[in-house]
Amino acid sequence: MLQTAKEMLMSRTLRVLTIFMVGFPLLHPLLSALVFQLPLKGVVSIALSPLYYLASIFWIMSGIGLRAFHHWAWYTFVIAQVLASYFNALILVNHSDSEFKGFSFILVMAIQYFLLRLVSREIRVPYLFPKINWWESGIAGIHHLPVELTPTQSGVPASKGQLLDLNPRGCFIKSPHDFRLHDPIQVRINAYGQDLTLSGKVVWNAKSTVTHPKGIGVQFGEIQRPLKRKVRVLIKYFNQQKGSSNGNAVIPS
Asked: What is the pLDDT of residues 108-141, one digit of tens each?
């Protein structure tokens, strides 16, 4: 059975992370006082700093945006990380009583890098940030792995598409047709000795741009273990052939 749109779009990991992001204005002074060994005067200085409020705005925007899977949330999150790093450096230099300032800063930077990788893994996926080569966006005649799309509720007939990016969580499919967001859809892929039908939901209608061709992002529902193994085999061959195609057609064998 397919999950609801809200359940599919928000993993438990990302849900917890966004709570911390929205709570940045309260958490940051407390954690800074603990890790950087700040006196009360240093904590008050944080609360009075314009940079603290600017960073808080970007962290809150990132938390709200990531919960709704808005594309701009990734960029506000990166800006929030940069602001937090600069602000932490200022706090250490001007207010910290710690004898291990360098170690404290490295520790905090390591935590921020871990968060960056974690959020990147959660949001930079084929259905939201597909890895598409430059020649795949606008050159006519470039064909990739053919797939069949079948909406399961809207009564729209099956149509053809071209698979451009794929992993076990979802895919991006080049298609001239428009689909309604959150509509259940089935994606049939017959290639490399694998005949798979994957169920998911439409989570992105991409318009034709310089970096992305017109198409849809599909987030898969829960995939059973036997089918998941077949998907991984398909991904392996698809990525190998796509990587060596250099703009030529990806022909399933």
From this structure: 999 999 989 988 877 777 887 787 776 665 554 4
Cβ atoms 144, 213 nearer than 8 A: no
Domain membership of residue 128 (yes or no) is no
Which residues have C-beta within 8 Å of that of residue 173, sequence separation ≥ 6? 147, 149, 161, 162, 163, 164, 187, 215, 216, 218
Cβ contacts of 38 within 8 Å, gap of 6 or more: 32, 46, 91, 95, 96, 97
Is 68 found in the same domain as 94? yes
Distance CA 117, CA 86 (A): 19
Token representation of residue 182: 């959150």
Structural domain includes residue 50: yes
User: Within 10 A of 27 (CB to CB), how many other CB atoms are there?
Assistant: 14
Q: What are phi and psi of 158, to 5 degrees?
A: -65, 150
| Structural domain includes residue 94 | yes
pLDDT tens-digit readout, 4-30: 344 445 678 888 899 999 999 999 999
Query: What is the number of structural domains in the chain?
Result: 2
Q: What is the pTM of this model?
A: 0.68
Give the number of other Cβ atoms within 10 Å of residue 201's Cβ: 24
Residues 99 and 158 in one domain: no
Write the CATH number for 202: 2.40.10.220
Q: Identity (one letter) of the amino acid at 195?
A: D
